[in-house]
Specification:
There is one protein chain. The protein is of the alpha/beta class and 359 residues long. It is built from eleven helices and 16 strands. It folds into two domains: 119 residues, translation initiation factor eif-2b, domain 1 (Four Helix Bundle (Hemerythrin (Met), subunit A)); 225 residues, Translation initiation factor eif-2b, domain 2 (Rossmann fold, 3-Layer(aba) Sandwich). The chain is globular, with a radius of gyration of 20 Å.
Length: 359
């Protein structure tokens, strides 16, 4: 990407961060100031920020904000507990909070405030570097699949795992951005990803970056693979278990099944902070059940340009709204991490992250 790499979170003065409110996208670009713990907790819970890596970074800044006036052990513990309860599935949230707590508990209270901001900045900086590395490792895989220039490489993704979900460039989209920057001809099939429609954010990102793409209904993915219109699938992850099982946005498993049937590579891109070596297999990962109104209602822009929320299903209708699903490791061709590419297995992960033997 030749233009300055955008970020969805930024420092904006002492004891203040701003986020790009993702509940307003793709219709409106609005920055939202977060000035206290309550605002950060709400932003994570309401999905004003989303994407496992970005949730972790935002939570780290939330802990720093919580210590602005009182950095006692009591405040630190209470803030940790409140932030940890916001989203149960994405492991980056808990990873970032544990790292912050471990770093801060070793310091006297009077030193914690400034140290918290430095550590949160460090976590954000590391995420950006990891995203860039994932992009380069993924690019090497895409080069192996590349066609003659006359035929673009046809890629498919699910949900949003771009810079809106991380600090820079993203996980699943990082190799695509790297390929585009390298001059490779690519085209991306983008699922809507109902009911939250995060795929519309992917389309917005790709349009901003000038990457050719087409939005599809989620249920069209299998047909496109059957017709030979997909060369590879790349998704992100919200948690990867020690055996290589992947939990990601609901609908990922169905794409993995279709890809396996057609012999299409199915790649999962995720940084080390998304790996959970303490979780033996995917069945042990809690799957978040979200409010049924996400399914009953839809948000869109009317003819006058106003963003409105409309009811498409009666409130009395029972709905099931799991936010994530589980893709078994056997369906994952490879994991793309900041340390390289590996099989989706315990042995493959430990080859890149040997410290995981003690996780």
């Amino acid at each position: 990407m030749n233009a300055p790499v955008p970020r969805p979170i930024r420092r904006s003065g002492e004891d203040r961060v701003e986020i790009l409110d993702q509940t307003r996208l793709p219709h409106e670009r609005r920055w939202l100031a977060l000035q206290n713990l309550a605002a950060v907790s709400h932003a994570i819970r309401a999905m004003q920020v989303r994407g496992a890596p970005l949730i972790g970074v935002t939570a780290a800044y939330g802990l720093a904000l919580a210590l602005a006036k009182d950095a006692s052990d009591t405040t630190l513990a209470a803030a940790f507990a409140e932030l940890a309860a916001t989203r149960p599935t994405a492991v980056n949230l808990h990873w970032a909070l544990r790292r912050m707590r471990q770093h801060l508990q070793a310091l006297p209270p009077e030193a914690r405030h400034d140290a918290a901001w430095r550590e949160a900045d460090a976590i954000a900086g590391e995420d950006a570097a990891q995203n860039r590395a994932i992009g380069q490792h993924g690019l090497a895989l895409l080069r192996q699949l590349a066609h003659p220039p006359a035929r673009p490489l046809q890629l498919m993704t699910h949900c949003n795992a771009g810079w809106l979900a991380t600090v820079e460039q993203g996980t699943a989209l990082a190799p695509i951005y790297a390929a585009h920057a390298a001059g490779m001809a690519t085209h991306v099939w983008v699922s809507e990803t109902r009911p939250r429609n995060q795929g519309l954010l992917t389309a917005w990102e790709l349009r901003e970056a000038g990457v050719p793409h087409t939005v599809i209904a989620d249920n069209a993915a299998g047909l496109l693979m059957l017709q030979g219109q997909v060369d590879a699938v790349i998704t992100g992850a919200d948690r990867v278990a020690a055996n290589g099982d992947v939990v990601n946005k609901v609908g990922t498993f169905l794409k993995a099944l279709a890809a396996a049937h057609r012999g299409i590579p199915f790649y999962v891109a995720a940084p080390g902070s998304t790996l959970d070596f303490a979780c033996p297999e995917g069945a042990d990962i809690p799957i978040e059940e979200r409010d049924g109104d996400e399914l009953r209602q839809v948000t869109g822009q009317d003819a006058e340009g106003h963003v409105r929320r409309l009811t498409q299903l009666a409130g009395a209708e029972a709905v099931c709204n799991p936010a994530f699903d589980l893709t078994p490791a056997a369906l994952v061709t490879a994991l793309i991490t900041e340390r390289g590419v590996c099989p989706a297995s315990r042995e493959g992960l430990l080859a890149l992250y040997p410290a995981g033997r003690h996780g």
